Amino acid sequence: MKTSLSKEDQKKIVELRRYFHKHPELKYQEVNTAKKIQEELKSYGYKPSFGMAQTGVVALHSDDTKKRCILLRADMDALPLQEVNNTPYQSKNPQAMHACGHDMHMATLLLTAKELKNKKLPGNLKFVFQPAEEGGNGAEKMVQEGVLKGPQVEAAFGLHVWSGLPIGKVAVVPGPIMASVDMFELTIIGKGGHGAMPHQTVDSIVVASQVVNTLQSVVSRNADPLDSLVVTVGKIEGGATFNIIPEKTKLVGTVRTMSKKMWDEVPVHFERVIKGVCEAYGARYELDFQRYTPVTINEPHMTRFVHEMAASVVGEENIVTDCRTMGGEDFSFFLNEVPGCFYFGGGENKEKGFIHPHHSPYFDIDEESLLVGVEVMKKIALTYFNEFPTK
Ligand SMILES: [Zn+2]
Ligand SMILES: [Zn+2]
C-alpha cells in the first residue's frame, strides 16, 4: 500500500501513537489525552472544543454548520491493566494500559484531520474523540449531549484496529458486527442453617448451582440456533465455612447477543428461568439486569461504501467480510441514531510478534496499520458527499 503521508507525518503518527501509549488514562479521566489532542488539532488549524461527555474533544472541518456533515470517531480511554511489554513506549502509568488499541485510533484520526484540513469538501466533517468506551458508554453520553447535532450528523464511521486480523487486511462486515453487552447481578435468598441439617434450610448454594446450569437452557432452547447468544456467570459469592448453609448466594455475569430480537427478548427468558428454579426450591431472588451496550449493526449501503473505499486502498483481495466478535462496542449508540459503518483494520503480524489479543497485558499492534487507517478514513471523508449526493 502506498501512503500519502509525508516522511515527516509518517514519523509524527508513530510519535503520537507512542505518546498516547506511554500516557494512558482510564475512562472519564482522559484529561491529559484530551489536552494533547487539542494541541495537535490547533496546530493543524482546527478549533477543537473540550468537555462533551466530560473529557471528549470535538472539532469541525469547516465553520459552516449548514453543510451536510459526517462523523469520524476515535475512542480515547485505556484499560485498568499493568502492561508487561518492554518497549520504548511502555505505559508509564501503573495499572493503566492502552491494551485495546485506542491509542492507535486517536493517532489515526489526528493525522486524518491534518491531511484533510486544507482540502475543499462539499460537506463538513465532525472529528469526535470519545472518552470511556471501555464500560463507560462515553458514546451514549455524547449522543445525549448532542454530538449528532449542530451540524446535524447524517452518517458515522469508526475504525477499530484488530489484533486477530493480519496487517494489511481490512474487515468490513454488513449487519451485526459486535454483540450487545448486558450485566446481571442475581442474589438467591434461601434460609440459612446448619450444614448437617439441610432439611431445616433452603440452601442458596444448591439453588444458585441449579440456576447457573438452567440459564444455559436460554442459550440452547430459547435462542434461535442461527443467532448467537452467550450467557456467562463470571462470579459466585456465597457461604462462609464448611458447616453453614448460607442464606444468600450471589451470581454476577454477562449476556451477549448479535441479534436485536434476542436482545429485546432475553431479559424475559432470563427472569422466567430464575423465577422457576427459585420457586421449585422455595427460594426468593433479587435480580438487577443492566443493559450496557446495544448490538453494533452496520447499515448495508454505508458498509458497501466503506468496503469500496478500503478496497481502493488495500485491494479487494485484502477485504474480509466475516470478522465478527461477541465483544461489545459503544459505537453502537451512534449507529442506533444514524447509518454508518464500524470496521476493523488488521494489526496482527506474526513475524514481528504482534499476536496477543485485545485486553491482554502483552497486547501490541503493528504500527504499519496506522498508515492503512489514515488512507481508508481519508477516502471515506473525501468520497462520501459525492457518493451520497442527497441524504
Ligand atoms: Zn476493548
Ligand atoms: Zn476497543
Give structural notes.
By secondary structure, the protein is of the alpha/beta class. The chain has 2 domains: 264 residues, Aminopeptidase (3-Layer(aba) Sandwich), CATH 3.40.630.10; 113 residues, Alpha-Beta Plaits, CATH 3.30.70.360. 34% of the residues lie in helices and 26% in strands. The chain is built from 9 helices and 16 strands. It has an 8-stranded mixed β-sheet, with helices on both faces. Strand 1 and strand 2 form a beta hairpin. The two termini are 32 Å apart.
- Strand adjacency order, main sheet: 1-2-4-3-5-16-6-15
> In percent terms, what proportion of residues is strand?
25-35%
**What compounds are bound to the protein?**
zinc ion
The strand count comes to: 16
- Give me the oligomer status: single chain
Order of helices and strands: HHEEEHEHEEEEEHEEEHEEHEHEH
> Number of helical segments?
9
Helix content: 25-40%
CATH architecture label name of the largest domain: 3-Layer(aba) Sandwich
Average pLDDT rating: 96
Shape, principal axes of CA atoms: elongated
Please identify which CATH superfamily of the largest domain we are dealing with.
Zn peptidases
Poorly predicted ranges (pLDDT <50, ≥5 residues)?
A: none
Terminus-to-terminus distance: 32 Å
Q: What is the CATH topology descriptor of the largest domain?
A: Aminopeptidase
**Major sheet: size, sense and barrel closure?**
8 strands, mixed
CATH class of the largest domain: Alpha Beta
The tally of domains stands at 2
Rg measurement, Å: 24 Å
